[in-house]
Amino acid sequence: MSSMANILAPDWLPSFRGSRCLELLRLYKPESAQHLVQFYEDDSFITENVAFLAAKALAAGNSSVVVATEPHLEQIHERLADFGVNAAAFRESGQYIAVDAAEALSRFMVDGNPDNAKFNETIGSVLRSAEKNSANGFVFAFGEMVGLLCASNKPAAAVRLEQLWNSLAERHRFSLYCAYSLSSLGNEPNTDDLLQICAEHALTIPTETSL
């Protein structure tokens, strides 16, 4: 584990093999709130990153919202348990909210595109609830609905969804960690699509590297 991870991790948190990117490691802090994107190859890498950040946010009294695929939700919950986090207790307090990404998409997609009003009703309500139950009114959020849209060959819809998240950030205090698997971008990713996706984020983090 890197020296930075040692500094950030509480005693009950085991080694973190995620990115060395300091901006990523600070996402759980209210003063470092921003919207980042990471591209990845290994599913376990991204789920460990998310579990680490969610655990850190919860340990600080804040809330965590995780919008992920069902397999990723299971992996994240397993890692939270490994980290000593009682996810069930945090769910009961309203500080930890897990949302199935595909189900969420089905609630606000209209004619192949995200609908602003339905998005605010679906995701906005989740964030408002998590924000209300956070000790500091701050939420760490993870989302991979955009990755699902790209995997369905809907990059323009993914860009639009990123824009809706940014609009939501103007009204609420949260950090957003977005993730796209390289496989969701196809064998030959369109450069224009990638540039548009990256432009909606404060920082783009490349694929995982060995520590």
Descriptive account of the structure:
The chain has 211 residues and is α/β, with parallel strands linked by helices. The protein has one domain: 3-Layer(aba) Sandwich (Rossmann fold). Helices cover 49% and strands 18% of the residues. The strands form 2 sheets. The chain has a 6-stranded parallel sheet, sandwiched between helices. A hairpin with a 2-residue loop joins strand 4 and strand 5. The relative contact order is 0.20. The N terminus is likely disordered.
Looking at this protein, list some descriptive labels.
211 residues, alpha/beta, six-stranded parallel sheet, two-stranded antiparallel ribbon, globular, disordered N terminus
Q: Can you summarize this structure?
A:
By secondary structure, this protein is an alpha/beta fold.
Structural class: alpha/beta
Computed CA radius of gyration, to the nearest angstrom: 16 Å
Poorly predicted ranges: 1-19
Quaternary form: single chain
CATH architecture: 3-Layer(aba) Sandwich
Residue-averaged pLDDT, rounded? 87
Reading off the top of the CATH hierarchy, the class is best stated as: Alpha Beta
How many domain modules? 1
**Fraction of helical residues:** 40-55%
For the terminal residues, how far apart are their CA atoms? 8 Å
Largest sheet: number of strands, sense, barrel closure: 6 strands, parallel
CATH topology: Rossmann fold
Relevant CATH superfamily: P-loop containing nucleotide triphosphate hydrolases
Please count the helical segments: 10
Topology:
Layout: H1 3-8, H2 22-25, E1 35-40, H3 43-59, E2 63-68, H4 70-82, H5 87-93, E3 96-100, H6 101-108, E4 109-110, E5 113-114, H7 116-132, E6 139-143, H8 145-151, H9 155-169, E7 174-181, H10 191-199, E8 203-205
Parallel strand pairs: 1-7, 1-8, 2-3, 2-6, 6-7
Antiparallel strand pairs: 4-5
Helix pairs in contact: 3-4, 8-9
